[in-house]
Design goal:
- The protein has 566 residues and is an all-alpha fold.
- The strands form 3 sheets. It has a two-stranded antiparallel ribbon with strand order 1-2. Strands 3-4 form a two-stranded antiparallel ribbon.
- A hairpin with a 6-residue loop joins strand 1 and strand 2.
- The protein has 20 helices and 6 strands.
- The relative contact order is 0.09.
Length: 566
């Protein structure tokens, strides 16, 4: 392009623009390299990585993946799927509605991380890199190819595609498929141990990040928001199906304890997530419910000698816990922030010390002291004995499977209560107090009464969960009901589950509780490095997801709107 400078009269020539096809060609080559690397990574899972079966998962078989190879296969297939979506291949465009580059980088990093973790674990466990055969080194090299291709891709330049409304049957099918996929992932994860569980966490973390950057999680969230009843029903059906997947009683025991932990965390979410009250002694309300149930459910060591039906024991546990919440909250909720945290921490310790001393020596014999109240009988509800084995639909359900289904019902009730209260006028007032108590009070909100209500409701929900826990464990002892300990639930783990999962949400505490219960139990193979690995995982999670795994959409929308107005 030529032009004349009017001041000098000289003719200037503008530099020629680079050909538009060049960047496109480079992007195409990078995407092809990523797709080819994903195929190679997936294919490497079908060759042997070591020569001995001593390594967990049997990685000696050619033609069939096992153990950590399955996770490499999944990561490779996700990379291929993202590449096809980025190419715009017909039938795969749905895989990257918000752009493929960022998602492909997460998928490729996940493939590289889990594959190299597997190779390093083989060398560490078996005593040297010589135990990694050619297939293992091929997998390690192949997993680096998609990462190189993904990081050569230019950033996504196009705007995210708008979600197109699908027929109702198609949207409902997608929700059902997502619930089934969640059941599959949970069943696989709970059945892993040691290095395989660590690899599962790595793969799940990178895959979730990739799905989020691809826009698929946002699409799924939109679908569940439009079909809330169907989504809740699909999640409930998937959870009910867990005992019928063939998992043994060991995993059923883990499942029922996760539900207890998650239900208590959801109750704490009322106090911390909605009302913004920092409660460091919340686990004591779980203990109040458990001890109440032990005293009225016919335990041989019960000082009351009562044998109430289960529904009465549940009501007693919830009401007594709520009463304790009112008694503790009435004189203490006048203070805020750190002072409230200190007071609630003191209440938790007072509860544990008190039940230790009500042993007939230091005080009246009510709780049995350090030995607790043993021999709590199994529940019997409408003629159904939860301690016996039953055959349902051709599947044998043992004791923990029975309690898992019962606890699932309790969790569903707590979820409904949380959702209804959170969306009510009271819930909105709690959020206002959480954001700015002074401003809320100035607008006519009775902050003390509402905070006391939140405290009492949270305590009641924890007490209900405690009634089931007492029957599941056959006994209640004071040791678990403390601020911090090696095994959840305790107040520190409960608070971490709420914060890391996402305060003010339903799914956040449930997911956070499941992870925080499984991680300490499954990472015992690290021995002395367990707490260090756990701490690093929490730091990384808070660094990359400061709002928690499931962010509060209401809070995010409010802040975004405020920023836009400013």
């Amino acid at each position: 392009m030529r032009g004349t400078d009017t001041t000098t009269g000289l003719t200037e020539t503008a530099p020629a623009a680079p050909p538009a096809a060049a960047p496109s060609a480079r992007a195409g080559r990078a995407r092809a390299l990523t797709a080819a690397g994903g195929v190679l990574t997936a294919a490497s899972a079908f060759v042997a990585w070591t020569w001995t079966r001593e390594f967990p998962g049997d990685l000696t078989v050619n033609g069939w993946p096992g153990g950590l190879q399955v996770l490499t296969l999944v990561s490779g297939l996700l990379t291929v799927l993202g590449s096809l979506g980025g190419y715009g291949v017909r039938g795969f465009r749905w895989a990257a509605p918000a752009g493929a580059t960022a998602a492909l980088r997460w998928y490729a990093l996940g493939a590289l991380a889990v594959t190299w973790f597997a190779v390093a674990s083989i060398a560490w466990t078996l005593g040297g890199a010589v135990n990694v055969v050619g297939g293992g080194w091929f997998a390690a090299a192949a997993s680096a190819v998609p990462m190189a291709g993904a990081f050569l891709l230019p950033p996504d330049a196009r705007e995210p595609a708008r979600a197109r409304r699908l027929p109702a049957w198609a949207e409902l099918s997608l929700i059902s498929a997502a619930a089934g996929a969640g059941l599959l992932v949970f069943t696989y994860g709970i059945g892993t141990e040691g290095a395989l569980f660590a690899g599962f966490l790595v793969t799940a973390g990178f895959a979730a990040a990739g799905l989020a950057r691809a826009g698929l999680l946002a699409r799924l969230t939109g679908l569940t928001a439009r079909h809330r009843t169907t989504a809740a029903a699909a999640a409930l059906v998937a959870a009910v199906a867990f005992p019928f997947t063939g998992s043994d009683e060991t995993y059923m025991s883990v499942g029922v304890n996760i539900l207890i932990f998650a239900t208590v965390a959801l109750g704490l979410n009322v106090v911390v997530g909605l009302a913004g009250l920092l409660d460091l002694g919340y686990v004591a309300f779980l203990g109040v419910g458990a001890y109440t149930a032990a005293l009225v459910s016919g335990a041989s060591a019960s000082a009351l000698g009562l044998r109430l039906p289960f529904w009465a024991a549940v009501l007693a546990g919830g009401l007594v816990s709520m009463l304790f919440g009112l008694l503790i909250g009435a004189p203490t909720l006048r203070v805020r922030g750190d002072y409230l945290a200190i007071v609630t921490l003191g209440f938790g310790e007072i509860f544990r010390i008190a039940v230790n001393n009500l042993d007939g020596v230091s005080g009246p014999n009510i709780t049995g002291g350090p030995g607790g109240i043993p021999n709590i009988p199994d529940l019997s509800l409408l003629g159904f004995d939860f301690g016996a084995t039953h055959v349902v639909a051709g599947v044998e359900l043992g004791r923990f499977a029975n309690y898992f289904l019962l606890m699932l019902l309790v969790t569903a009730v707590v979820v409904v209560v949380f959702q209804r209260v959170g969306e009510s006028r009271t819930g909105r007032a709690w959020v206002a107090i959480r954001e700015d108590e002074t401003a809320a009070t100035a607008m006519g909100v009775n902050s003390f009464r509402l905070k006391l209500t939140a405290f009492a409701l949270g305590a009641a929900l924890a007490g209900v969960a405690g009634t089931v826990q007492a029957h599941v464990s056959y006994a209640v002892v004071p040791d678990p009901y403390q601020f911090a300990g090696a095994v959840p639930p305790n107040s520190a783990f409960l608070l971490a589950a709420v914060v890391l999962g996402g305060t003010g949400t339903v799914a956040g505490p449930l997911i956070g509780a499941a992870l925080l219960y499984l991680i300490p139990m499954k990472l015992q193979f690290l021995q002395d490095y367990q707490l260090m690995a756990f701490g690093i995982a929490l730091i990384l999670l808070m660094r990359f997801r400061p709002d928690g795994l499931v962010a509060d959409r209401r809070g995010r929308v409010d802040h975004d709107a405020a920023g836009a107005t400013a």
